Amino acid sequence: MENDKLNILFEKLQGTFDIEEPNNDHRQLFLEKLKASKGVISIRPKKKSWWRPLSIAASIAVLCTMGIGLYNTPDIDQQVAKILPEASKIELYFSGLIEEQVKQLENEDKPETKRIIEDTMIQLKKLETNYIQLEQDLLNGGNSKLILSAMITNFQTRIDLLKDVLDQVETIKNLKTHNDEQITI
Length: 185
Description:
The chain is an all-alpha fold. The chain has a domain at 76-182. Helices cover 76% and strands 0% of the residues. Helix 6 (114-139) packs antiparallel against helix 7. It is elongated, with a radius of gyration of 40 Å. The mean pLDDT is 77.
């Protein structure tokens, strides 16, 4: 099939091909020109282009500007403190309590409590993500009283979660100790 298409194409182009041979002295003329140049080919010197160094310098300048801009932007906590000073005080108080309870929980990390502690840490991360979203909402001009209430609720939820888990860990420890006492050798 493809062969037929090629044959049809060549039939259509029949008579349009350049089949004439060059003059007999063509080769001689070429060799004379080659000898005249003595095998040296002249190349015009390239013009120096400033585009490449200029584009590299511009890229570096843009990256530096972006880096300085990111470095100098105020922290979200600082921005929230400017908008609502009570929020930074509340955050400082609650984050200290939460951090203390997390340390207690990490100290209780035993094989029998490992799973419950890991699940608690995942839940704490989710609550932290929600808190960050609340801060963004506050910065974007949301209802400050409502958002502050939601922030406090978020902190209280984290503290309640940690207290419940610490109680469960304590119960697990007591059960293990109590069960071990019942075993006789």
